[in-house]
Amino acid sequence: MKSIILSTFIMLFSLILVTPTFASENEDKVLEELSQKGEIIYKDDEITVRSFGNDPEISEAIFNHSNSIVKNENNANDNIITPFGATGSGGWSSITASDSGRSVYWSVKPATLWPFHFTGLVKLRYYSGFKRDAPIGGMGIAGQTISGSVSMNKNNGGIAYLSGTAYAVTGDRYKVLPGVNVSFRPN
Prior knowledge:
Blueprint: H1 2-35, E1 39-43, E2 47-53, H2 56-63, E3 69-70, E4 81-83, E5 91-97, E6 103-110, E7 116-126, E8 131-140, E9 146-152, E10 158-168, E11 173-176, E12 181-184
Antiparallel strand pairs: 1-2, 2-9, 3-5, 4-11, 5-6, 6-9, 7-8, 7-10, 10-11, 10-12
Helix pairs in contact: 1-2
């Protein structure tokens, strides 16, 4: 009887250890499937840049991904965009890397009640010393989130930094806070 209880306990404990791994794999599969919806805005031999526009399903998948990096001036668990020269939150931004190391996903939601245009960069800084900047951007209206991805054909691992500014029709500007970055592994 003790051996049955012990083996059952070991089996349940091993499931607890394995379940987060499967969850991360499922999140990556969801992102990869959703990313096929995106429009290719730039492609060369090294990278492919996609825009997902204002698709809320993709933005939620990026923001809620377990590897998503968020930034906030007051709380490190929130992703905030702040207006130039103003205090307080101005929205949120998020960046995450796939477990395969081939893709970096980003999303931005400025806190504006007006249509906006976001322009920015995903700065890829490889551990080998190679640097590459991928231009990103998109347009949205009040309450919308825009998102996209940068896929790499091959890499030796590194860090991806998200930077940029959302410009509202009213002339207000909302800048992504420094420190929104994620490391990606070699593939």
